[in-house]
Amino acid sequence: MPSTTTELMDVTPMIAARKLYKRFGRAEVLKGVSLTIDKGEVIAVIGPSGSGKSTFLRCLNHLEVIDAGEIVIEGDTLVDTDASGCCRYAPEPELRRICRKMGMVFQQFNLFPHLTVLQNITEAPITVKGLSREAVIPQAEELLRKVGLLEKRDAYPARLSGGQKQRVAIARALAMEPDIMLFDEPTSALDPELTGEVLRSMRQLADERMTMLVVTHEMAFARDVSTRVVFMDEGEILEARAAREMFASPAHPRTRAFLEHML
Amino acid sequence: MTIQTRIGRRLVGVARHDGMTYFLEILQPLLEGTGVTLHVFLLTLALSVPFGLGLALLRLSPWRLVGRVVNGYIWLMRGTPLMLQMLFIYFALPFVPVIGVRLPDFPAAIVAFVLNYAAYFAEIFRAGIQSIERGQYEAAKVLGLSYGQTMRRVVLPQVIKRILPPMSNETITLVKDTSLIYVLAMNDLLRAARGLVQRDFTTMPFVVAAAFYLLMTLVLTWGFQYLEKRHAVYDD
Ligand SMILES: Nc1ncnc2c1ncn2[C@@H]1O[C@H](COP(=O)(O)OP(=O)(O)OP(=O)(O)O)[C@@H](O)[C@H]1O
Ligand SMILES: [Mg+2]
What we know:
The structure holds 2 protein chains of 2 kinds.
Chain A: H1 2-10, E1 15-24, E2 27-37, E3 42-46, H2 53-60, E4 68-73, E5 76-81, E6 87-89, H3 92-99, E7 102-105, H4 117-127, H5 133-146, H6 162-174, E8 180-184, H7 192-207, E9 211-215, H8 219-224, E10 228-233, E11 236-242, H9 243-248, H10 253-262
Parallel strand pairs in A: 3-9, 3-10, 7-8, 8-9
Antiparallel strand pairs in A: 1-2, 1-4, 4-5, 5-6, 10-11
Helix pairs in contact in A: 4-5, 4-6, 5-6, 6-7
Chain B: H1 3-16, H2 19-59, H3 64-79, H4 82-92, H5 105-130, H6 134-142, H7 147-177, H8 189-200, H9 204-231
Residues 53-54, 184-185 of chain A line the site of magnesium ion.
């Protein structure tokens, strides 16, 4: 039966992180973080500053190297740890292939300043996938239309507002057709009146069933858009529950204290 | 013959034929000298820029030892006079065991200039590369670009914009430094002019040589201005 087949395929988690450990010098930043994310889930990661949210995200796509643990992306092992505690990453080409399944949006945008908006979006498909300019331009324009910035296609990033920059960054990540999108505080560098346009693009993406992992201080977004909320504190995940439950009745006292402080 | 009589003869000479005729007479040797100067300049530039870039990349590589060796090399090349390096390669290198080779004057000069200028360019490139924010590397990596692609497509294009002013400085200095090859008895522009001054006892060849140098640096200044303007289409 076709439906069974799809269901079987769907049980492979998009991201399976098990017992991640990470230290910077003496500071233990991740202390055995585990999280499994299924297809189409939108996970909001919340928690106090310095609790390891960014580090967790950055470990998933190899921007940081873990000390121990296991990360499996759509069934492919990015890194695992053997019985002796030795941590092994996949060989370079495999590693790059796995990481390419994840797009990322940074707090500071990190657009390429020397390229126009359109070139920012087409750069990776041309350079990495080897596609021709002609082939990728229509797709890039379609993405720009989606984030509402088609008229800025030939502008340089310096000429854009923060909100526009971040929407270009989203389009740039989507151009590589990732299966998972990681967001590290995408609206934290923006003026309050500009967060709405970025959150709208993210909401649209969630409606299209994109698997998303979003570190955010936007409690409204966490409550309204995410399927699950993860609360991190001092390098650990204290709870991970459906958004509505989490906000209605946080189980852990530290979660409760944090939410009271935020809302 | 005394200085006075030489001046006297020269004055007679000037009186005999006008300045224009003399100018045309010295133009030929001075142009030949300019040819030698340009030859050294262009070859040095063409070879030392890529060599310097390579040194900068090695200097910034994760291999500590390689970085230290490059540092030592840059110290050596910037810490001793270019003229000494040229004399060493021409006169002393043939007697160095194993690597010793005897180079004719022109190649010896080019090798010295390239080795020396690459050290300066390496420092310019290093500073430029280090000025690019980590976020640019991370964005490139997350999009799937390899290290080489990141350098070629993301980092170096931005570096070029930032290093144009110091590169312009260094390149103009190189034009004038080419005059050092006179120690290997090659007839560059300045040596040609000096020869004429000593022969004819008039300062006109110096004036013409100065005008030629100024012309060359003017072209370079314009070239770099053009490049800066082209890169000014975006702000960092
Ligand atoms: N590259 C690094 N070197 C050293 N320490 C680091 C590094 N990156 C992060 N840390 C430390 O790790 C801890 C967790 O940092 P992380 O950025 O993951 O926190 P966060 O939860 O994202 O905080 P915020 O909400 O402020 O962004 C902090 O104490 C931070 O100082
Ligand atoms: Mg953070």
